[in-house]
Amino acid sequence: MDDDGLLYRVYERRLTRELEAFDLPQHLGVIVDGNRRWAKEAGETTEHGHRVGAAKILEFLSWCDDLDIPLVTVWMLSTDNLRRPPEELTALYEIIGATIGRIIDAGYCVRLTGNAEALPQEMRADISREQEQTAPESRLTVNVAIGYGGREEIVDAVQELVRDLAAQGLDGDGIAAGISIGSIAEHLYTRGQPDPDLIIRTSGEQRLSGFLLWQSVHSEYWFCETYWPGFRRVDLLRALRDFCRRERRFGV
């Protein structure tokens, strides 16, 4: 091991020890951004960048598992991404499907987060078959956000709620009275789960782009310049250390 590698390992161990004194996030969100730019700067194809980024997701989840973080939401494909060139989308669908299979093979529980109807029928069928093999008792649950948009999620939740209230025979005033923060939350894609404590975004972009809009009202954010394929375990540890040092006020 060279001197740089040794120093990296020493720093990583030091960060890990620092975190032992803190409560880590119970729900971690990650916006995996920068695959295409990483590939361009490396002189590789966009598809290669997406494949390296997909492999990084498996590595990232193993780090979270080692740290006993029980819930991770990974944004792999947004509704905006669905407008990308057909050849790129075809490759993305294959990569995402294979990645979900690998996440399940690793023993993690997978939940889809997003509008499945926006995805090709064959992809939906493949994912459904893979989910039948998932391990619900796993220590780590992974929300895979594909065909996901924060505004679309809220619209879907309200529409589903209105349909449920109408099915109860309520009139317009009754339906309006039944719409509340709590009732909308019960119809989100992440229903039954805690809101994210920390959201990480890679690639230097400092915006949410619609990720978990409703759920992130009290989340902490951590942005880093590194493109997703280059994200390291030490970057995760630094994000967690920064999170643990903050005083969370929850709007108070």
TrEMBL record:
Enzyme class: transferase
Residues the entry annotates as binding Mg(2+): 33, 220
Keywords: Magnesium, Metal-binding, Transferase
Coiled-coil intervals, chain numbering: none
Assembly behavior: Homodimer.
Family: Belongs to the UPP synthase family. Z-FPP synthase subfamily.
Gene3D superfamilies per record: Decaprenyl diphosphate synthase-like (3.40.1180.10)
Protein function: Catalyzes the condensation of isopentenyl diphosphate (IPP) with allylic pyrophosphates generating different type of terpenoids.
Domain of life per record: Bacteria
PANTHER family: DEHYDRODOLICHYL DIPHOSPHATE SYNTHASE COMPLEX SUBUNIT DHDDS, DEHYDRODOLICHYL DIPHOSPHATE SYNTHASE FAMILY MEMBER
Positions contributing to substrate binding: 34-38, 50, 78-80, 84, 201, 207-209
CDD domains: Cis_IPPS
EC number of this enzyme: 2.5.1.-
GO molecular function annotation: ditrans,polycis-polyprenyl diphosphate synthase [(2E,6E)-farnesyl diphosphate specific] activity; magnesium ion binding; Z-farnesyl diphosphate synthase activity
SUPFAM superfamilies to which the protein is assigned, alphabetical: Undecaprenyl diphosphate synthase
Stated name of the protein: Isoprenyl transferase
InterPro entries to which the protein is assigned, alphabetical: UPP_synth-like, UPP_synth-like_CS, UPP_synth-like_sf
